[in-house]
Amino acid sequence: xxxxxxxxxxxxxxxxxxxxxxxxxxxxxxxxxxxxxxxxxxxxxxxxxxxxxxxxxxxxxxxxxxxxxxxxxxxxxxxxxxxxxxxxxxxxxxxxxxxxxxxxxxxxxxxxxxxxxxxxxxxxxxxxxxxxxxxxxxxxxxxxxxxxxxxxxxxxxxxxxxxxxxxxxxxxxxxxxxxxxxxxxxxxxxxxxxxxxxxxxxxxxxxxxxxxxxxxxxxxxxxxxxxxxxxxxxxxxxxxxxxxxxxxxxxxxxxxxxxxxxxxxxxxxxxxxxxxxxxxxxxxxxxxxxxxxxxxxxxxxxxxxxxxxxxxxxxxxxxxxxxxxxxxxxxxxxxxxxxxxxxxxxxxxxxxxxxxxxxxxxxxxxxxxxxxxxxxxxxxxxxxxxxxxxxxxxxxxxxxxxxxxxxxxxxxxxxxxxxxxxxxx
Amino acid sequence: xxxxxxxxxxxxxxxxxxxxxxxxxxxxxxxxxxxxxxxxxxxxxxxxxxxxxxxxxxxxxxxxxxxxxxxxxxxxxxxxxxxxxxxxxxxxxxxxxxxxxxxxxxxxxxxxxxxxxxxxxxxxxxxxxxxxxxxxxxxxxxxxxxxxxxxxxxxxxxxxxxxxxxxxxxxxxxxxxxxxxxxxxxxxxxxxxxxxxxxxxxxxxxxxxxxxxxxxxxxxxxxxxxxxxxxxxxxxxxxxxxxxxxxxxxxxxxxxxxxxxxxxxxxxxxxxxxxxxxxxxxxxxxxxxxxxxxxxxxxxxxxxxxxxxxxxxxxxxxxxxxxxxxxxxxxxxxxxxxxxxxxxxxxxxxxxxxxxxxxxxxxxxxxxxxxxxxxxxxxxxxxxxxxxxxxxxxxxxxxxxxxxxxxxxxxxxxxxxxxxxxxxx
Amino acid sequence: xxxxxxxxxxxxxxxxxxxxxxxxxxxxxxxxxxxxxxxxxxxxxxxxxxxxxxxxxxxxxxxxxxxxxxxxxxxxxxxxxxxxxxxxxxxxxxxxxxxxxxxxxxxxxxxxxxxxxxxxxxxxxxxxxxxxxxxxxxxxxxxxxxxxxxxxxxxxxxxxxxxxxxxxxxxxxxxxxxxxxxxxxxxxxxxxxxxxxxxxxxxxxxxxxxxxxxxxxxxxxxxxxxxxxxxxxxxxxxxxxxxxxxxxxxxxxxxxxxxxxxxxxxxxxxxxxxxxxxxxxxxxxxxxxxxxxxxxxxxxxxxxxxxxxxxxxxxxxxxxxxxxxxxxxxxxxxxxxxxxxxxxxxxxxxxxxxxxxxxxxxxxxxxxxxxxxxxxxxxxxxxxxxxxxxxxxxxxxxxxxxxxxxxxxxxxxxxxxxxxxxxxx
Lengths: 425, 425, 425
What we know:
3 copies of one chain form a homotrimer. Chain A is α+β, with helices and mostly antiparallel strands. Helices cover about 30% and strands about 25% of the residues of chain A. Chain A folds into 2 domains: about 1-35 and about 165-425, Alpha-Beta Complex (Naphthalene 1,2-dioxygenase Alpha Subunit, Chain A, domain 1), CATH 3.90.380; about 50-165, Rieske Iron-sulfur Protein, CATH 2.102.10.10. In chain A, helix 3 packs across helix 8 and helix 5 (about 200-205) packs across helix 7 (about 360-390). Chain A is globular and about 75 Å long. The model of chain A has no long low-confidence stretch (mean pLDDT about 95). The interface between A and B is medium-sized, with 34 and 30 residues.
């Protein structure tokens, strides 16, 4: 049947599913399992909103690139000869061959492996052998993608008319990141992990610490009272909470002294580019994600002279979170592959002058989050299998999961906006 | 399009396929290959009829459990603290995580691995940390599934209004099983085998011995004239048939003497819960499924003092058959995974006091049916590949395959009943 | 919904896609990626046109067979007891089991492994044990498929009313193959390679040498100026072109002298059974596909006494090409498995009296095309991944890719013809 009819009917089904959603509860199963909803997510969410793809520290020199895959899309994030960032579709304009295979590296020009059509790192076609006389190379440059860097964090927007909420969000959050000087950082390690669950389960899992008793390594430094309302701290975490309050007081003093932004701002479901940013204290030594809380990199980021600055954490809807400490930073990109498969790309960043084996050790640097990610992947898989069971009924979030609920609210709202726009066409 | 419209159109397609079926012939291809029919099977057959899942011998003590998976469903068959059987959906009522991973074992309580919501073995929610003040635990118990034990064989029914034909079937067949005393048995071995074919091909394969020349190990004891009409015994099996008649006469004498039910009752396609039950003689020593027919377990089931009691075999539509000898019993559960994938779970049961390595040896005990199952799996795979070929035309069953036809009749009749009920809604 | 309605709606979608195709450009993505179009290809193209399946040299003796699989179809190409070729559906007429597993070999009769129904190599059912009294074996022979041998190359047509364009094509091309005497050849080696791309990408890749700089081994003998218009030879191939012209002149003299057909005939998109045939010179020693161009088999095909006869190459739409040299021949069959999976079966044929290890060495014989096929498989995979990307836009073929365009024209025309015929039903 005509595509418009199909779309209309699919949209009716989605509207009904949306209507079935009970606020404060997990989503109806098809949002996690259906192929149609997954395609809709790629269109309405990953095709219209600002998606984190990489940080500038991943492409420091001209020709440096990293590819980013989600759905069937492959993007090429590359630094061009003028040292500008470019984001290009990784598809040759001749017969569509993939130009660079997934990964990162450095190139002079972008040469398609099939018939050697050659593009500059900014996407300009400069060579197509034996083309017809009337062939216009300028019509066959690689397709560009809109992007914006927030303090060195690169976001893309696949829409023809990207929303501009990112400008205001950038102006709010950039001050928090300033002193970490991400542009002077480099990649210490990047790990791609495939979680056997829907991308939304990955995001939901990250928005609550209700499960954090199951993260022993993370719990050495991360106050696992995170997300609990003041009056709902469980008894076994009361002592932790006391330490948290005292550590927070110390951190606040330091931040004021050093002009470091720290105040929590939470607009997870109240704007187009939902986000949350806050600098918070760490437990133990309070410096970094180690087993004791002591720093993991001797050379600190930017020009910091104090390692004990807690963690600056930011979350942006729909696919990003990060932690910036004084000694290193970690970014997380959530990239949907299929309804039940999601890539989580974790990148550890250190000062450009930090020397591996001298200033830091990669195994130690990555230990806590490697363990934590593996534990989270297991939770996401359990959840995916369970919500696929016909017996699954959406269940209630507890108060400390209010940010999960906010994520779902944001998501449902953006679907509605998208469907309204389609209906108005 | 609206789900009801889709369902109506799918139903029209199914009705047409049903109309295409020629009695006495194998089913049209989509019944074996289509995703839509597979979903319908899970709904109309596995969602409405009595499905064998386990025997009570598999869960002897409080906390003992075994999971059973078919389609996307996972059931938890468990013995509760009051020593009662419970069948629960294996899905947490919080955010839907799978509670126990597939397998068997023993637990104190059922603790979800994600956020530690804790349920008693009877499904009662007893702990949800930091829930809201108005949270009502009693509304969040694990969902229960209707079940009924026939002589220790546990059947479940996923329907909200389970049909009650199982009561009458139970009253008919229980006398056959009484003296085997399944409740005093234990598991000697359980093997899960995945057959690369539709579940109906697995069932059809089991309802005829026309292929039994290809089961050399089974043929040592099983009279492979089984299913042949008296006047259609093939010449090469005439001698076997003579031995069968003589063995049957001896078995009948014994059964009468010992008050053991033995008479064949066959209602495969003439009632809601189609079944067949009969005690029949075995060849060779006549005691058990060994290569000579000699018993494989020294300690006999129940209080038997004679090993030569043939095999008590029962078949229930849609997913079960079994063989109970004097020395051990074997149950077979057929569990659909996908249109072309089926799990066959075979369980060997012995007297609870039989000692492994002394009274029996697991390799010997399981040998004949491990070989037979592997041969059958190969046949089912050949059939699945062939019926998927566009050149496949349903072919005629021969007279000794009349029970295969009865299985198909039962299946088609139950689909019709289901579609009629849906149409009446 | 009724199948006819579904078909009508699918056809509308296909018509729209066809309308979107720009001549001179690669096809819109769904032609390479969609399940529906793949099914249509199997129906409209592989179900109606003449498909190459094997050469007679693969089945020299009664009982010799080779199976050929595409889509869900398995065909049995077999030599019967009267030494005639037969092509049969590889599906038992009883309950549909696959009769022979994929591969080649030799049989006395065709015995189904499930219930031993037995057929002669010509498909006649000769044994069905214990069938009913009124069972008519003559109604249950294996289903036959129309076929035609062109100079020993066996083509099948699955349609009930095969088009007869093959007769005229045969009369045109058979003279070219006569002296190679394929019926006196035997298989030296057959290799099945799975390419991770749509079958049309495999065919397209074969219809141009624009990518041949990436085939170093092939380029030792194959003039990689092939396909370039005279006025568009790239500068770096000018020297090659000079050698080509001189080699062609020599070959033409020889062909005239020996009454060998050599003139190029190209009707790729101008008739029902599109084809191209031509004898062309080889580079280097000019004899065969070796690294120097020297012959690879001492015993030449047929009664040739001169090894330097270049290559006789033929292409037939939709799934075949071949190269016949004086010393050996190579056939290529392209067999679709799934939208993104294609089997390429390459068969090396030598004189029946050539002795392995004496007259030829299999590793050397197959080296150039094993390397070339592997390189092509990589290109096809790159193309498949790229056209699956939502950012893919069909791109322009360059002049030397005009035969790729002709393939697409033929394909689109045949789809239109098929849809017209369906609409007229």
